[in-house]
Every structure is written in C-alpha cells, then in structure tokens.
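Thread title: Can someone regenerate the structure for this chain?

I was given the following input by a collaborator and told the matching structure tokens would be attached. They weren't. Posting the sequence so someone can regenerate them.
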Amino acid sequence: MPAAPAAKSEIAYRFLKERITGGGYGPGYRLVLDAIGRELGISPVPVREAIRRLEAEGYVAYERNVGPRVAAIDPGAYAHSMEVLALLEGACTAAAAPYLTPDALAEAAAINDRMAGSLADFDPVGFTRLNREFHRALCAPCPNPHLRGLVEREWARLDAIRRSTFAVVPGRSPVSITEHARLLDLIRTGAPAADIETCARDHKLATLSAFRRVAGEHDARGADDPGARPGGK
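Best answer:
Regenerated them for you:
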C-alpha cells in the first residue's frame, strides 16, 4: 500500500531536517523540490509541505526568484540567544556542580578529549555535536527542572539559527577545549558556585565575541556579497 500524503510529508521533513542539521545541506543550499522528490521516490507536493514546515521552524528561507534555501545564520538572533544561554547555562552548570559524580565528570572529560582528538580532521558539525554533549553532561543533574528546561529550549533555538558556530569561527575550537578543561577543574576542586557560574558564562560569551569579530570582518569586506557573510554562500 502506498504511503499516505501525510506520511510522505513526514518522511521528507525528517530527511531534510537531518540533512540540514547534520551539515549535508549547508547555509544557502538551494532546495530543489523535483530533485528531492526523485531522491525520496515521492512527488514534489509532500516535499513542498515539508519545506514549509521547516521554514516555520527557521531552517529554511525563501529567496525571491530563487526559491527555498537553507537559512543562513541570523547574526542578531544568534547573538540574542547566546547572551541568554550564557546566563542560563552558567546558572545551570553552577547548580548542577554539587551533584556531578566522579563518573559524570569523567564522562564530560572524555567528551572533551574526543573534541581535542577531532581537531586534526576537523568536522565543525561533529565538533558542535560533541560540544553540546559536553554541556548537556554538566547541566544534567541540575536540581531545578525549570532551569534545565529553559536551557534545553534555548539550545533548540540555536540549532535552528546556527547549524554550526565552529564552521564560522573554527579558530575558536581549541580555545573552547581549554576552557572546558578549566571548567571541569573548578567543579572537581569544589570551587565556589559563583566561580563556576562565571566560568561557564564567560565561556559562552567568548564564543559570541569570536563570532562578532568574524561578522565584523565580513561586513567590512562588503555587506552586498553573500559569500562575505557568516553562513553565506
């Protein structure tokens, strides 16, 4: 029995979202309905429905006379989310610190080691995924479920905005690993909650500062050149 239209739309949605979030379709990539439909063995109609859904979620943007493309990073939205996340993640990490067991800290350290090992053959999307795993491990035992929920929602918002920050600022990657190690040392040694919160917050804000520097350099080269903008193509 052939799949129902709704099921086909869901198949197309999951396929496209995985390609976008996994880096297969980078910012600016043109989404051709007929080609995607042929690849999936379905008509363009459910593909169009899936793309509209992804547009509503911020993953896709329509460009006049071109059609749907994978959305580029919105520098303003990214900055706002990172500022909020710096505050939330700092507080969440500090609250979770007393509940992080030696095994949990060892797991976070192992993730950070994997991040360091990935630098030789750098994959920004994979690095971003490991970075999220690291911070999720440190925030997981936070005793305040509302705070954890706010952090998770802001992470999800960033997923729709950025794809991978480290693709835009790859030089930030080794510094981020060093900052992770510093944060782990503070937690292991029982540092005051205020010190842990400051370290986690400043770590996130440092990434935002690096992004802003790159954005400023690209703007100076020419705002009319899509290739000169972070996430442009």
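The domain at 75-228 is CATH 1.20.120.530 (Four Helix Bundle (Hemerythrin (Met), subunit A)).
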